[in-house]
Design brief:
Helices cover 32% and strands 21% of the residues. By secondary structure, the chain is α+β, with helices and mostly antiparallel strands. Helix 5 packs antiparallel against helix 6, helix 11 packs across helix 12 and helix 13 packs antiparallel against helix 14. The longest helix has 22 residues. It is globular, with a radius of gyration of 21 Å.
Length: 487
């Protein structure tokens, strides 16, 4: 979510009925759909991955694979250390076949075919659908079912629950993949509800009960709160959503600025954004935070490679050509630095994207870095030929900004992407005017208005800040690398 789903007001809209549909381990589910023998087995789907090669990054890991510590955005080489390939384990007496898994390369064409079948059901079920990624969408079903004011009557609640159950069952029976569904009067609560009881969960939060539902949750569960912001809040004695909801707004504003007040409202169940369809993006970006700031050059380069691969994948899927490639580097305490290189014409070239991003990163080789981002912008969706790269001489642009809204702004790349992209990674789709500058990216820290306010995927312009690279573990999120695609 960026390009904003709507500006926050001061009060919730209890009459709205919002469903958030999140496919469970979608890439893995698709692979199992065409290869049933993989069901119940540890399965890793990799981007930039080729059979028998250790290159690439994990796009999604099945729940079975996550038990071995494999997470989305992890380098395939590291995943193989934790979970060897079955075929290799069968040949190596030192490896246990029961402690090994299967690996498959990303097949976007096939996943999009499956996603199209799912989306057809969603559009039949609601008049307004916001597709935020290949595996994630919001539905406004207010015209199909209804709350009865602040407290839903039992009959209405049953109809809402029945609607959500029927929707989930249709997806499973007609398409063959599994979805978790959250229903609430607000978008942020519906998203949290869909993640509450995975896999194949169904959670309904009634009007008037959103704040109570959120109160016991860890503050990191609140929409737009990433690991760094969560740590800062805990340092302030704010451990839960209830603590945040009851906190002094002046104290929150002083520490985090207006974005702090925004997440405080989310914690209080106040989120009057309306579900609106996603327009054509103006940029695509992906961000990911380190658990702790790092100076390790290879660790930083590996992170950029994974982010670049994710952005390239999204651009390819969307049929987007780009004229500008950029990176964002956040250094302690909260200094946001952006660098970009302009191309002579629009291209779609994953290798060029990666190499350019790595070249831009060289300036920060010796710096301690807490978060990295990769972005392509100046997009075009024409079917004409790409620009020739012969004699390419990019024009470097750069901007450096101190993020005066602190840790929160730094992580605000909202829930997005990425979903299965559900893993907590932050693809963002910016729908703001095409003329956005590098300084804009620095100012919003990758939060175009939403990857969904900052990562709801596809993050404010996307819808939530890439549900993102907020650094959550796979147990805390259902994870795929790109959350914002109705991927």
């Amino acid at each position: 979510m960026s390009g904003d789903l709507g500006r926050l007001g001061s009060a919730p809209t209890p009459d709205q009925v919002v469903c958030h549909v999140d496919m469970d381990c979608f890439y893995a589910a698709c692979e199992r759909l065409r290869e049933p023998a993989l069901r119940g087995q540890p399965l890793v789907v990799g981007m930039g991955y080729e059979s028998d090669e250790p290159h690439g990054a994990v796009a999604t890991a099945s729940y079975e694979a996550r038990e071995f510590g494999v997470e989305s955005a992890m380098a395939i080489s590291e995943a193989l250390e934790r979970l060897p390939r079955k075929v290799e384990a069968a040949k190596d007496p030192d490896l246990d076949v029961e402690e090994a898994g299967f690996y498959r390369p990303v097949d976007l064409d096939y996943y999009n075919e499956v996603a199209a079948d799912v989306k057809a059901i969603l559009h039949e079920s609601a008049d307004v659908v916001r597709e935020v990624s290949i595996d994630e969408a919001y539905l406004d079903v207010t015209d199909r079912v209804a709350w009865d004011g602040e407290a839903a009557e039992e009959a209405d609640l049953q109809s809402v629950t029945a609607f959500a159950r029927d929707l989930s069952e249709r997806v499973r029976e007609e398409v063959g993949v599994v979805a978790s569904v959250g229903v609430a009067p607000t978008m942020s609560a519906a998203k949290i509800a869909s993640d509450y009881d995975k896999p194949e969960g169904l959670v309904v939060v009634e009007p008037g009960e959103v704040r109570e539902f959120l109160a016991p949750m860890d503050v990191a569960e609140i929409h737009n709160v990433g690991p760094v912001t969560a740590r800062e809040l805990r340092d302030m004695g704010i451990e839960t959503a209830g603590d945040l909801a009851a906190s002094d707004p002046d104290r929150i504003r002083e520490r985090f600025g207006e974005r702090g007040l925004e997440v405080r409202r989310f914690a209080r169940g106040e989120d009057p954004r309306e579900v609106t369809p996603v327009g054509e993006p103006k940029s695509l970006s992906r961000e990911s935070a380190f658990t702790d700031p790092t100076e390790d050059v290879e660790e930083k380069r590996a992170k950029v490679r994974a982010l670049a691969a994710d952005v390239a994948e999204r651009a390819q899927r969307e049929g987007a050509l780009y004229r500008t490639i950029g990176i964002k580097v956040v250094t302690p305490p909260f200094d946001v630095n952006t660098r970009a290189e302009s191309l002579p014409g629009p291209v779609e070239d994953a290798d060029l994207l990666e190499s350019t991003a790595l070249d831009l990163l060289e300036e920060f080789a010796d710096d301690r870095v807490r978060k990295l981002g990769v972005r392509v912008s100046n997009l075009s969706f024409t079917e004409g030929e790409q620009a020739s790269l012969g004699g390419f001489e990019g024009t470097a642009e750069s901007a450096t900004a101190d993020d005066d809204s602190g840790a929160l702004a730094d992580e605000s790349a909202e829930d997005g992407a990425v979903g299965d992209g559900s893993d907590g990674d932050g693809m963002q789709v910016d729908e703001a005017d095409e003329g956005r500058t590098l300084a804009d990216w620095a100012d919003d820290s990758g939060t175009p208005g939403d990857d969904e306010a900052a990562n709801d995927e596809a993050a404010a312009a996307d819808d939530e800040p890439a549900d993102e690279a907020d650094g959550r573990s796979p147990e805390e999120r259902d994870g795929q690398l790109s959350l914002w695609e109705y991927e």
